[in-house]
UniProtKB/TrEMBL annotation:
Residues 398-679 form the Dynein regulatory complex subunit 7 MORN domain. Residues 200-264 are annotated as: Disordered. Residues 221-239, 248-263 have a biased composition (Basic and acidic residues). GO terms for biological process: flagellated sperm motility. One of its GO terms (cellular component) is motile cilium. It comes from Cyprinus carpio. The keyword Coiled coil applies. PANTHER family: DYNEIN REGULATORY COMPLEX SUBUNIT 7. Residues 273-343 form the CEP76/DRC7 peptidase-like domain. The gene is ccdc135. It is found in: Cytoplasm, Cytoskeleton. Keywords: Coiled coil, Cytoplasm, Cytoskeleton. The lineage of its organism: Eukaryota, Metazoa, Chordata, Craniata, Vertebrata. This is Dynein regulatory complex subunit 7 isoform X2. Pfam families: CEPT76_peptidase (PF24656), DRC7_C (PF24671), MORN_DRC7 (PF24667). Residues 727-833 form the Dynein regulatory complex subunit 7 C-terminal domain.
Length: 835
């Protein structure tokens, strides 16, 4: 929610009397001077010609309702002369007095977001801009219709409540508008002393882990030999230290609150405010609560921000509060059927709707008295149907954006597609209350082609973290970095189930890179590479700077298809020392694993031969002494295989380095030139979708036009015989008419003949079947006789249907003939000759 920028919330209050009298006299002696005039931009003028008649005039029911409201106001002023006037019949945007209950228009919009109270409250708070009441202790003189408020996206707190209550009533809630008094911060929409909701820690359900059942023959735990006295003394000292720390923390918080406490408000308890009350019952609402339409937040009915209530109303009735609000709303009850605490304007069916079940159990005498009362129902709403277009729902905020200032935080919200980089929410936290030194900047994005979802920058450490949605070609999920320069400190998380190598995380430092994997077929889950200082390497005739590998460590999960003594758990390639260390998995009944160390033979140089393999180049340990030791050939083959694996590992590491550089390069391009994804179902923004829809509509029109052109012309066959003359004479017209009627008469005769021939054919076949039956009925079986009877039944049915068709054809033939004759007389080419 945003407050219109020309409004200044600072007020200077001067009390002219030297001594304080009662509340009424002190209020009359308050002189309010504004440092800046507290007037918002003037509302746009209403085009009366475009307004419906219900906006510009009152019906007979509304006039009667206004008269009843005026009578109620006079009685109220007589009984309660010290209370403020009620908001009963303010004028609307067309300067016509309307009862407040008829301004509500129950509406359910076709957006799932607006099906619950949280969505409705959030939408109203985001969609509208606030106009402050002037003066703040007076009721508004104008209460606009919800349609006008939504059109201008501006209104007072009363306009906010009317719109929100209309949406809640449409969604099935038992909602009411409340006119009362609230604190200065709530009336002025000042959230600068509140914590940002996005910074509040989410409450997580702490579920206790189920205790493991003790087995009957389990090993008993060792006896605890520590002194219980010493343990209690330590716990006591620790509790005292925690209590002292907590006391210091509470004192510091108290002092901080004292420093941040706003100055006393001279208008406390006098500032008029309007909010929404939701009563329990409908939509599974367990208890009553308030909704502030300016922020969209819910509050308890005993919240200290609400200082008093004058009246409540919905689309059926209006109630005046008769309870004492000296201590706010703490002791108030909201049983609107209790006449000792609430006074209604209209008596009728609405009382039974809002009353509690206990109050419904009334004596029969009271029910008879209620029946005897003359019931006047609330007039229907004069407001037209509330409608919000999808474009307005998407734009959401006035002008597409809004800014909310919280305590040490600033929240900025933007409509989708408003900014080129897809930014929709930006939260900046500060170190000081003046919001001058930024601490963190957190951004949320939508519809980006690079699938960036969230980015956070810590200004102190200059560390940036990015979160990505699934869909990237590199499967990047999370990126933490200081700079996008390669070979610097960073962390990358990936969607491992998408990648073929199962990479889940890559942590890079200037001289180290660690990778973790998931669900690999070779059971590898950890790889750590240590580098040396950069050196120049010549590759393909180019001099490149590269970090040489010093050490590579790999770890593997257990492969149960192999014995533990043969299954590698860890292997370390010490490239700088030309050594390879292999450690196998620990066997179930052992405490030390088997291992082997290899020293790689020196390769051939210019003046030296390659070093031959010797058994002294291998050292190891076997857990089971009875196991047959490895032969020299086996050791040599293992060394050759490990040297080949070392080369492959180095290639994988170099590929990882290339991938890092590729990701960083693509991230730089994506940030500098961001593309937004547009759905194919959004033709307003998707150019290809719009062109496709236009092409589809054009083809449909052309198809319809071709169908019209292909319609049969009754005169076409006869015109061909006449040589298709452009101008018809009277004789030609008569000839065309006669030919058409004769052809149509012949078609009718042919159809009758066809039906008659089918009747004769069916009758002939039935007679043949009957003669066959008379000759063979003595030798027929029961099945043959059943088949004969079934055939006769079907044949008689077909003959009956054909006879009915023939009769109907003969009855309709003259009518069709006359209809064709009349149609020919009205034909464009023959009408001039016969009319």
């Amino acid at each position: 929610m945003e407050v219109l920028p020309e409004v200044d919330c600072e007020e200077d209050v001067t009390i002219t009397d030297d001594e304080e009298d009662d509340e009424e006299s002190s209020l009359s002696n308050i002189r309010i001077t504004h440092t800046v005039t507290h007037i918002a931009k003037p509302r746009p003028q209403v085009a009366l010609s475009k307004c419906p008649s219900s906006y510009k005039e009152n019906s007979s029911q509304e006039k009667l309702m206004a008269a009843m409201a005026e009578n109620f106001r006079q009685q109220y002023a007589l009984l309660y002369p010290d209370r403020k006037a009620l908001l009963l019949c303010p004028v609307n945007e067309c300067s016509v007095q309307k009862f407040v209950s008829t301004t509500l228009r129950s509406t359910l919009l076709p957006y799932p977001e607006l099906y619950d109270w949280e969505g409705c409250a959030s939408f109203v708070a985001d969609y509208l801009s606030l106009e402050l009441l002037d003066p703040p202790f007076e009721l508004p003189k104008q209460l606009s219709s919800p349609t006008w408020v939504l059109q201008t996206q501006r209104g007072t707190c009363f306009d906010f409540s009317i719109v929100l209550c209309s949406l809640l009533l449409g969604a099935g809630y038992n909602a009411y508008c409340v006119s009362g008094y609230a604190t200065k911060e709530m009336c002025l929409l000042d959230q600068s002393r509140q914590e940002c909701p996005l910074l509040q820690p989410q409450i997580q359900d702490k579920t206790e882990e189920p205790k493991k059942p003790m087995k009957k023959y389990s090993v008993k735990p060792p006896r605890d030999l520590h002194s219980n006295f010493e343990r209690r003394q330590e716990e006591k000292q620790q509790a005292e230290a925690e209590a002292a720390t907590l006391k210091k923390q509470l004192d510091a918080e108290r002092l901080q609150k004292e420093r941040e406490r706003p100055p006393p408000d001279p208008l406390r308890g006098l500032r008029v405010h309007c909010w929404v009350l939701l009563l329990s019952g409908n939509r599974e609402i367990p208890e009553n609560f308030f909704i502030d339409p300016l922020t969209g937040k819910s509050y308890s009915t005993t919240d200290e921000n609400f200082l008093g209530i004058e009246s409540v109303w919905n689309h059926q009735n209006y109630w005046v509060n008769k309870q004492d609000c000296t201590f706010g709303c703490n002791e108030m009850t909201f049983d609107l059927g209790d006449l000792s605490k609430w006074e209604y304007v209209l008596c009728g069916q609405s009382l039974s709707i809002i009353s509690d079940p206990k109050t419904l159990e009334e004596p029969e005498d009271e029910e008879e008295e209620m029946d005897e009362l003359k019931v006047f129902e609330m007039p229907p709403s004069w407001v037209t149907t509330i409608d919000i277009s999808p474009a307005d729902m998407e734009m959401r905020y006035p002008g597409g954006m809004k800014v909310i200032e919280y305590r040490k935080a600033k929240l900025e919200k933007f409509a989708p597609y408003l900014l080129k980089d897809g930014l929709v929410t930006k939260l900046t936290t500060y170190k000081d209350l003046d919001c001058t030194k930024a601490s963190t900047i957190k951004e949320w994005f939508k519809h980006r082609s690079d699938h960036l979802d969230e980015r956070e920058l810590h200004t102190d450490s200059n560390v940036t973290t990015e979160h990505f949605r699934p869909g990237r070609s590199d499967a990047l999920k999370y990126h933490r970095y200081v700079t996008l320069v390669p070979e610097t400190e960073r962390q990358m998380d990936f969607y491992s189930h998408i990648r073929t190598d199962g990479l889940a995380r890559r942590i890079e430092k200037p001289f180290e890179m660690t990778e973790t994997f998931e669900n690999r077929t070779d059971f590898l889950f950890y790889r750590n590479a240590v580098y040396g200082k950069q050196i120049k390497v010549i590759r393909a005739g180019e001099a490149l700077e590269q970090r040489p590998l010093q050490r590579v460590e790999e770890r593997f999960h257990r492969d149960h298809s192999k014995p533990a003594s043969k299954d590698v758990a860890e292997r370390i390639f010490v490239v700088s020392d030309r050594r390879i260390q292999v450690t196998f998995h620990l066997e179930d009944d052992r405490i030390i694993p088997a291992w082997l160390n290899f020293i790689k033979p020196k390769e051939a140089a210019d003046s030296q031969k390659a070093q031959a393999f010797t058994p002294q180049m291998v050292s190891g340990f076997q857990v089971d002494p009875s196991t047959k030791p490895y032969t020299n050939l086996q050791l040599y083959e293992m060394l050759v295989e490990l040297m080949r694996e070392e080369e492959n590992v180095e290639l994988h590491i170099r590929d990882s380095e290339k991938e890092v550089r590729s990701i960083l390069s693509s991230r730089e391009k994506e940030d500098s030139n961001t593309d937004l994804l547009i759905s194919i179902y959004n033709p307003t923004r998707n150019e290809m979708a719009r062109l496709h829809m236009e092409e589809k509509e054009r083809m449909a029109k052309e198809k319809k036009q071709r169908q019209k052109e292909k319609e049969l012309d009754l005169l076409a066959p006869s015109q061909v015989r006449l040589g298709l003359p452009e101008v018809l004479t009277s004789q030609d017209a008569l000839q065309l008419k006669t030919d058409c009627l004769n052809e149509f008469k012949q078609q009718l005769f042919n159809k009758a003949s066809l039906i008659q021939s089918r009747i004769e054919k069916e009758t002939e076949e039935l007679q043949k079947k009957q003669l066959w039956y008379q000759k063979n009925y003595l030798t027929m079986s029961n099945e043959d006789e059943d088949d004969y009877l079934a055939y006769c039944s079907d044949a008689m049915f077909r003959i009956h249907v054909l006879k009915m068709r023939l009769i109907r054809h003969k009855e309709r033939a003259p009518q069709k003939y006359l209809a064709l004759e009349e149609k020919l007389k009205r034909h464009p080419r023959l009408a001039s000759h016969f009319l």
